[in-house]
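Weekly puzzle thread! Below is a chain. First person to post its structure in token form gets bragging rights.
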Amino acid sequence: MSTATPSTGHHDRCRIVVDTCADLTPEIAATLDVDILGFPYIVDGVEHTDDIWTSITPKAFYDQLRAGSRASTSAVSLGRYLEFFTQCAEEGTPTIYLCFTSALSSSYDSACQAAAEVRRTHPDFEIYVVDNALPCACGMLLAIEAVRQRAAGLTARQLAAWADEAKTYIHGYFTLDSLDALAAGGRIPPAAAQLSSKLDIKPALSFDLSGSLTLTGVCRGRKKALKGLVKSFKDNYVIDPSMPIGVFSADAEKDADWLEAAIRREEGCAEATILRGSVGPTIGAHVGPGMVAVMFWGKDRAEKISLSDRIAKRVRGVR
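Winning reply:
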């Protein structure tokens, strides 16, 4: 794993790059042979680089937020991408970057600009930037399977095409303890956050095909919200023991334990591989402490889109 310079380990013919918004756990990152670019985040005016819980523990980070610290994030800069991609080009291995959703960050645009510049200066270098359209640890599931596909022989070009098709089969459903962090980050109006906390309303959230957050429902109270996650899982999961399921939280381990146990009671899930982890500081800055999420491979989300969305996608040249 590398958060600074490209690793020169064995890459099976291509290098896979992800960023810290994919929320890989330190344990998984250590086993995957991928490069990880750290997103910057700011706490009370001090900038840090997300290093997947190397320099701070989840509890310490979320306790800061509970105590009133203000957290925000900034995108990976064009300069940082240029520096990193140039190093990749000089090392020469064909490279694919599974980038955090363009719907929630300008990083994808910067990465594409940097890749274009590096192709100009290194015309023989193969680099592909894929918008993963997946928030949070959904990106981890894509990365794990991409590594498996690389081992099965896919080239960088084939992997880029594979990732574009595969990402619509990944689902993520989550609930938040409050809407305060989303309101502070300007993602929702402050009045909505105040009303929801007054009424003990817990939002049920997911994301659309572009990777934008979507509100799928509201629940009165935490337990109903957690049961709602189980229902969303049940409605969309496709049994495949080879594909792991993720249960993540923002320092809400007891609720994550409850969710894992509930999922194990679902058909075909008793022996499933369930990956547990903590939502990283980059995502955590926007959702605040108490988020609980389940992510998994399931039905193709692209099949559910409306006719008007299909037409719009065709016009934009996206299938």
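Puzzle host: Confirmed. Bonus trivia for everyone else. The chain has a mean pLDDT of 90.
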